[in-house]
Write a structure and sequence with these properties.
This protein is an all-alpha fold and about 210 residues long. It is about 70% helix and about 0% strand. It is built from ten helices and no strands. The chain starts with a helix and ends in a 16-residue tail after the last helix. The model has no long low-confidence stretch (mean pLDDT about 90).
Length: about 210
């Protein structure tokens, strides 16, 4: 099992290292890692480049998680009884690659879109519950960070519900939550101070590169 876990982590990490927001930014002659939160994720792409770029970044970061997770589930290890655990590890690899991409000196995004892609590929039913949680919390508070953290907290709860008694899977799901809180530590500080950026606020681009 250990070897298979390492394989899945590596597969996921390689997919995760494709930084969609950074690529889209470069297409628009803007290095988004130098503006706003300096993240290469969806929210910073939205604030830096606008709604269209934000949507493309979101889709890219979700898809790059879905593809390797489904590869592991359906093609690489479909017959293993612990394939869902391997799927989780693959998704974890994607999030690690997204958050700490080797090609960007380990400075990436915050992993929420890729976590969402992992959740979708892991168990599509989760979308019925997770999407409203995110949408309603953001609509009420106007803070994407709150919706993101709630989604990360919901993941291990869902794993408990759907896979009761599987402590290993629960622990892996909790790592997704931990990573989300680590990457959102500055957002949490701003939320407590009341200075967090709300949805719709734009970042001024002083020059293009």
């Amino acid at each position: 099992m250990f070897t298979n876990i390492i394989i899945c982590l590596l597969i996921g990490y390689l997919f995760g290292c494709f930084s969609t927001g950074y690529v889209i930014g470069k297409i628009n002659k803007v290095d988004i890692t130098k503006y706003g939160s300096k993240s290469s994720g969806t929210t910073n792409a939205l604030r830096t480049l606008g709604a269209k770029a934000g949507l493309y970044t979101l889709l890219g970061d979700v898809i790059k998680a879905i593809i390797p997770v489904l590869l592991v589930k359906l093609i690489i290890f479909p017959d293993l009884e612990y394939v869902l655990l391997l799927a989780l590890y693959t998704g974890l690899g994607v999030v690690l690659g997204h958050n700490y991409p080797v090609f960007l000196k380990f400075k990436g995004g915050k992993g929420i879109a890729s976590t969402g892609g992992t959740m979708l590929a892991f168990d599509p039913l989760i979308v019925v519950f997770a999407l409203p949680i995110f949408a309603i919390s953001v609509a009420i508070t106007k803070y994407v960070s709150i919706g993101s953290l709630l989604i990360s907290m919901f993941f291990p709860i869902w794993v408990i519900i759907r896979n009761p008694g599987n402590i290993h899977m629960l622990l892996v799901a909790c790592v997704f939550t931990l990573l989300a809180f680590i990457k959102h530590k500055d957002n949490i500080k701003r939320l407590l101070k009341g200075t967090e950026n709300k949805l719709g606020q734009r970042v001024k681009i002083e020059h293009q590169e």
